[in-house]
Amino acid sequence: MDLKLARALKAADFPVTGFQLGHRFYPHEDALEWSEATRTHGVTITAYELENHLRDIADGYYCPGLSDLIAACGDKLARLHIIKDTWMAESENSKHVGEGATPEQAVGRLWLALNGHRRSLDQSAA
Question: In this predicted structure, what is the pLDDT of residue 3?
Answer without folding.
Answer: 95
